[in-house]
Specification:
The complex is a heterodimer of chains A (173) and B (371). The radius of gyration of chain A is 18 Å and the shape is globular. The N terminus of chain A is likely disordered. With 173 residues, chain A is mostly helical. About 12% of the residues of chain B have low confidence. Chain B is 8% helix and 36% strand. Chain B has 371 residues and is mostly beta strands. In chain B, the strands form six sheets. Chain B has a five-stranded antiparallel beta sheet, with no helix packed on it. A four-stranded antiparallel beta sheet of chain B has the order 3-2-1-25. Chain B has a four-stranded antiparallel beta sheet with strand order 4-5-6-7, with no helix packed on it. The chains are: A mainly alpha (173), B mainly beta (371). The interface between A and B is large, with 72 and 65 residues.
Chain lengths: 173, 371
């Protein structure tokens, strides 16, 4: 097609960044297939804008922004996509693996009880270590909204998670 | 201070399996490129019974100065972003506007009051109203003639709010009744969540519990009663079911896999009000792509799947009361190429027009001849 960008450049970008994007997407969606859908579509939109992005640094920022926008705005289908956490078998299973898995399930369930916007704020701030200004820019909202959504999300997480998560130590700073 | 939380999230993220999405992304990009220019959504547009496409005069332009010879015909309805697409065909603020246009007249813009949940907009079968789910989680109805919102009376149950799913998004898209007098909704209240809201009185009439169905459309059955047609999971794929609107009705399977190699229906983008034609998206494995609620095939039904046809496009709107479809066709690069009116069953083109200038910003969601 006339508008097709150079194959190699985009393919290299997509293959290099997909693992990291999938990790964030998994936290956002709570589901392997939904995470794949999200990253797939975000990459597709990046491809459409590839010529404008020029540099891969811009491309990654753009892809992440699209991914978060999609996640907050996407329609959610009934029944089809009930998130079920499928914990993978990892070869380095330790003696206390069951405790770790229980902990992950608890966190997964608590995240799923948040609104999509609240979850996006938590993933951006505490998983991707982004500041409130950066988070607001990516989500396209005000700093005040980020702060209020973060506060509500943390409050909800504290109520949902057991004490051993030490949620009282989580802060807005 | 947040290190434990970060560590727990890292561990949770470790559960994702890394897959190569490059080829899938390329495929989606090709489809989005066409969708961006061809349409942003879909709706069924109704026309008076008996109008034939032969009498339809199609527009030659959409720049406010269509040729005088095209002054007759009907009304086109487009969805468009407020402002602009964000360079990738997305609407970052999820704000849409509607553009109505009669050939020979200036196009008219209707600004929606609320942000818009993706794919939640539908045109009433009589072509006079447009419903969507706003960012306030309420159903909004716009009068396409006046451009003003119509308030739904609160009625007995006050059904003006669409319930939230477990991710704070509506689970059911409101669907118009064939007579355009009611909206079928999920009110989220108790055991009688699903039903019709009468737009005149606001009263709520419960229907069959459609839990587990998606993309429900309301059509008129052979006995002139309302039926719900939707998709549900079945085995490794999906199946299209039809069920009477009554609370105790039993669903009937119309069809599963549409054809060898063409896969399962994953979305019903539109239905003719007589229920004989469905505009469906298919996938070989029955996997639903939320961003791909389009029309790849026109499936024809009586009691069961009667036939299907690959449209070769990604969007159609049925012209109600006829056996015709209207499509804004894009070329390989996604630029609008042609508006086509065709026979839904064979695809034979019976009318064409030059698409509106600037229509890469617009999605054709309906056409109403004679209006």
């Amino acid at each position: 097609m006339a508008h097709e960008p150079p194959d190699r450049e985009f393919d290299e970008f997509a293959r290099a960044r997909t693992p990291a994007l999938l990790r964030s997407a998994f936290l956002l969606t709570g589901d392997q297939h939904l995470a794949e859908d999200l990253v797939q579509t975000a990459l597709a939109k990046t491809l459409l804008a590839w010529k404008r992005l020029q540099r891969t640094e811009n491309a990654e920022a753009y892809t992440r922004k699209v991914m978060y926008h999609l996640q907050v705005g996407w329609w959610r289908r009934r029944a089809r996509e009930r998130a079920v956490l499928q914990l993978v078998d990892r070869p380095d299973t330790q003696a206390d693996a069951s405790e770790d898995i229980a902990r992950q399930i608890a966190l997964h369930q608590a995240l799923q009880r948040l609104t999509k916007r609240q979850r996006a704020v938590l993933v951006l701030r505490f998983f991707e270590d982004r500041g409130v200004n950066d988070t607001a820019r990516i989500l396209g909202c005000t700093v005040g909204t980020v702060k209020s959504q973060t506060a509500k999300a943390l409050l909800r997480m504290r109520a949902e998670l057991p004490d051993d998560f030490q949620t009282q130590e989580w802060s807005l700073a | 201070m947040n290190l434990p939380f970060k560590s727990d999230m890292d561990s949770l993220a470790d559960n994702v399996s890394v897959v190569d999405l490059t080829d899938r992304a390329r495929g989606t990009a090709r489809r989005l490129r066409v969708m961006r220019t061809v349409v942003a959504g879909v709706a069924v547009l109704a026309v008076a019974m008996g109008i034939t496409v032969g009498s339809v005069v199609l527009p030659s332009a959409f720049n406010g100065s269509p040729a005088a010879g095209d002054a007759k015909g009907g009304r086109y309805l487009f969805e468009a972003p407020e402002g602009d697409w964000d360079a990738d065909g997305n609407t970052p603020t999820h704000h849409l506007k509607l553009v109505t246009w009669h050939p020979g007249e200036e196009p008219r813009t209707i600004h929606l009051k609320q942000s818009y949940y993706v794919n939640s907009g539908r045109v009433s079968p009589n072509g006079t109203m447009y419903s969507y789910v706003g960012g306030d989680d309420a159903v909004h109805i716009v009068n396409l003639d006046s451009g003003k919102e119509i308030d739904i009376p609160s009625g007995k149950l006050g059904i003006t709010k669409v319930p939230m799913g477990d991710n704070s998004l509506p689970e059911t898209i409101p669907a118009w009744s064939p007579d355009s007098g009611s909206l079928w909704v999920d009110n989220g209240i108790g055991d009688h969540r699903f039903g019709f809201v009468d737009l005149g009185s606001g009263d709520f009439t419960p229907t069959y519990d459609a839990s587990g169905l998606w993309d429900v459309q309301v059509v008129r059955g052979k006995d002139n009663t309302e039926r719900l047609i939707g998709l549900r999971l079945a085995g490794k794929g999906t199946e299209i079911v039809s069920v009477g609107a009554g609370e105790k009705s039993q669903p009937k399977v119309l069809g599963g896999k549409l054809a060898d190699g063409d896969g399962y229906a994953t979305h019903i983008a539109a239905a003719s009000t007589d229920g004989k034609r469905l505009c469906v998206q298919t996938d070989a494995k029955g996997e639903v792509d939320k961003n791909d609620n389009t029309c790849e095939e026109v499936a024809t039904f009586d009691e069961h799947l009667h036939g299907y046809r690959d449209t070769g496009q990604w969007m159609n709107a049925f012209i109600q009361g006829t056996d015709k479809c209207v499509t804004l066709v894009g070329d390989d690069s996604g630029e609008p190429k042609e508006i086509q009116v065709s026979r839904c069953d064979t695809g034979k083109v019976v009318g064409t027009a030059v698409p509106p200038s600037g229509s890469d910003k617009y999605g054709l969601v309906g056409f109403q001849p004679g209006r």
